[in-house]
Task: structure prediction
Amino acid sequence: MQLTNRSKQVSNKEMTLMERAYLPAIATGLAITIKHFFAKKVTIQYPEVKRYLGPVFRGRHILKRDEDGRERCTACGLCAVACPAEAISMVAAERVKGEETLYREEKYAAVYEVNMLRCIFCGLCEEACPKQAVYLRHDEFIPVFSDRDQVIWGKDLLVEDMNNRYTREAWTKEEAHALDAKRANGEVTNVVPRAIP
Amino acid sequence: MNPTLSFFYFLSALTVLSALMVILSKNPIHSVLYLILTFFTLSGHYILLNAQFLAVVNIIVYAGAIMVLFLFVIMFLNIKQDQEETKANIAKIAGAIVGGTLFVILFGAYRKTLIPSYNPNQFDSQIGMIENLGKMLFRDYLLPFELASVLLLVAMVGAVMLGKREIGERHF
Amino acid sequence: MELTEFVIKTITIVVVFALTLVIAMYSTWGERKVAGFIQDRMGPNRAGPGGLLQPLADAGKMFFKEDFIPALANKWLFIAGPSLAMLTALLASAVIPFGSTFRWEGHEVVLQGVESNIGILYVFGVVALGVYGIMVGGWASNNKFSLLGAIRAASQNISYEVAMGLSLIAILMMSSSLSLGEIVAQQHGGNWNIFYQPLGFIIFITCSFAECNRVPFDLPECETELVGGYHTEYGSMKLGFYLFAEYINMFVSSAIISVLYFGGYNYPGMDWVYNQLTAALGSQTGHNIATLIGTAVFFGKALFFIFFYMWVRWTIPRFRYDQLMNLGWKKLIPLAIFNIIITGAAVLFLKPLITAWLN
Result:
């Protein structure tokens, strides 16, 4: 049975004098390595240069607001149920009169916390959400923790900033690069990665 | 005292001391290392005599090759200090008598010997240089030199014979 | 000895010493950089521009680590091991001629630590002693893996010393001198030994790879068989000294290769440059600048061979131990003896013919 047409018959034949001399083989090897020595390097200088990870990359969470700036989350708890790592916890509260501009539904999450040490960034919360409230950003990571206090992210970090809304505008690498170029020229200013406190 | 002479005394003291330590130290590894030090001080003596070639060859052959093999074997033997069995008194007495007799004979022999001395005015300080040594070996002492090389060749062939694998089943 | 002479010699020796150390230090950086480049990476580039401060960072790390001595180790010999390795490595650079001469107000200063009429034998003797650092350290660790690694290293070094010495003899037969300065001077005018001794050069460079314990002969340390080899128990700067000694050995052997086979500080068109410089700048400044160019050429050659060591390291897989021994004893030694015979025949019969034909 032939699985691939690149397979080679193994042979145990005597080496020729040229092969036994070993030096021509070394010269060939040295030629290969020196070619790599002058080849273009593949390294990406990470903290300075960041590679575009694609439109479906699952980075840090965000709690979306709607067009009027009201929080979408209704604290139904489906995301917490869906979460395989049990990273999400919330406390629901009822909206009182005068808070209609803050919360879209009559019930909202007074506390919404994600334990970033537990989270495995699987994106099941995103899929479970019936209100399109929770998303995993494609453009931002969780920064490195240096303290346990920084592990649990509350609403202060998670809820979207209306001045700097999260949209997923680029869906291909080329679009992303074009967007990056535009952003560098100052033509597009709406999606600037937020400085995380 | 001129610096050469004081250096000679220092080197001689070091030589005697390290040679004594070869037989006095309990640990065989230390003995070997002291022996190597002795070879170095001897090379120092050769350099004082302006025999640089001899000094370096002494280091290459003795310190660099033979003593390494010594060290090799002793490291493998792994002799521990506490495993040294106490020797019988009779052996100690016999050793003392033999050693003492040898010392007396050597002392007597040396006392009677006339050490050939050089006239410092006629002494050629370049005699130990490699060019002169080579000329001496290949002109005046050609036969002994070649015979010694044949002896070494025979020893080498013997070593190869001993090291050859025997025909038949391998046991290791 | 005159005082000025003493001062001049002291300065020369200190400069040679410092140069050896600096080059060895930057070889560690170079090794990592070359490794990176050959593997399509960048290599160290964070500490200073292009990672140039990396050796300092490494040294700082080594110095501040805990200086640990195992409880059952032989304390003095454990310390003596790396010291001996470092000592023997540094000794060898004393006789290497780095350039011709410097002229300063009537003084003629030779750019060489010690001019000796047994230079090459001295280097060979010091190289032979390099084994002790490894053996003593390996034994004093009181660890079976260290001992086995030390013994492997020692037997490898002894075996390859033989072939190395034999390949040297062919050079000595041609130059009829043991002085390195003399050997370099004889190669003046493109008369490099590599053209006469290609086989000897290949044997010599192979043996120097083995003597420096470099890939493809880096058998003394082998994670799968011997943990870390002879320096398993070592840490902190004592380990640093072992590794550093290896790099110094690499520099010394590169320098020796360029002295013996590639004409040292000689380069094509050297006389023309010398005449131009002395005509333009006078016999002192011109001479000194010509010497500096020659020294730069020498270091260029030596650094190329250091690069070659690294280049080979990332090209050839290591030998198995029996292959190593077979190569040393059954191939290189007969080849070296064959080379001696050919050289002897050529010196005896071919050289008079050629000189007669040229005249």
About this structure: Chain C has a mean pLDDT of 85. Chain C touches chain B through 24 residues (CB under 8 Å).
